[in-house]
Every structure is written in structure tokens, then in C-alpha cells.
Amino acid sequence: MEPLLFWALETLLFNDFQPSSSNSPFQNMLTDVTNQLLPGSSQEAPSGPSNIAGIDQAIQQAALSTGLSPALLKAVATVESSLNPAAVSSAGAIGVMQLMPQTAESLGVNPYNAEQNILGGAEYLKSLLDNFHGNLTLALAAYNAGPGAVDHFGGIPPYQQTQDYVQKVLSTYQALASSPEST
């Protein structure tokens, strides 16, 4: 199978099928096939929680550690990966919080470990909020497009994908924050 076609199939399956255990035969098979077919793919399978309760718990821990709202972290994770610890973007972003490998390395986290990925994403978002003086909109734009792009354009970059991303995260955050069972 062509690597791009396989990637599309894998993405579809990972986004639509979330097994309750990170060690399911289906997920192991996909990881093995991915490692065989895609050059440069990681030899490391995702670890940590793959169920929503485990992801929620990791988000709560990261929120406590960073002082960020759990609803904000869950909104970012939802928009980034649909809370999928096995998600890998076409740009190479990994896991629940879709960390780029260089970002994960600079944060000292393993992006394939769901707890570390979530904590790393929370720490990165917190640093962006600090960098942009608490401006959530700019921090979210920087999370998506990079802080250099936000600096270069003096605000949200004129990229449709980034503009849509910021709006999706903000609306998801608002919905989560106002729900009675919000995290």
C-alpha cells in the first residue's frame, strides 16, 4: 500500500476506533504495520491511558501541575486529536496534545506516553500564555502555527487553518467550562 494511502487509512481508523486498552491486538497490528511501511516512523507504541477516563485524569493532573483550566486543556486536546493518544498528524505531531517531536524533546517528555504528552502540551500552552501576556487567543494561535508566526504577523496569522483552530478551541472551551460535568 502506498504510504500516504496507508496514513489516511490509519488516521481514519485511529480517529474512529479507540480501543479501551493501549495494548489491544488491533492497535498493536496498526503500530507494527505503520512501523514497517512508513519510513522514519517511530518504533514506540503509544503508552498510558487510551480510555477517556484515563485521559481525563491525566488532563486533571496536568491542570493541577500547570495551574491551567482542565476545561481549556481538554478543549485543546479535543480539537487537536479528539482525545486520541495514538493520533499522528501529517506534519508529524504526536498524541493527545499533538506535540511536535522537537517540542516534546525540549519539554523533556515522551510524546508517545499519554500522561507525558498531556503534561508537555499543558506546559507548552502555559509557556505560550506567559509569552503572550495571558492572551489566550494569541497563545492558541501560537500552539497551532508556532510563536514565530504570531510574532511575525502581530496577531493570529492569516492562515485559515489557524483561524479555524482558534475558534474551535475557544468554542469547545466555552462549552466544556459551562457544562455541569466539566473537567
TrEMBL record:
InterPro entries: Lysozyme-like_dom_sf, Transglyc_AS, Transglycosylase_SLT_dom_1
Every Transglycosylase SLT domain range: 58-152
GO cellular-component term (any): membrane
Source species of the chain: Sulfobacillus thermosulfidooxidans (strain DSM 9293 / VKM B-1269 / AT-1)
Pfam families: SLT
Name of the protein in question: Transglycosylase SLT domain-containing protein
Entry's Gene Ontology molecular function annotations: peptidoglycan lytic transglycosylase activity
Similarity-based family: Belongs to the transglycosylase Slt family.
Gene Ontology BP annotations: peptidoglycan metabolic process
Lineage: Bacteria, Bacillati, Bacillota, Clostridia, Eubacteriales
SUPFAM superfamilies for the chain: Lysozyme-like
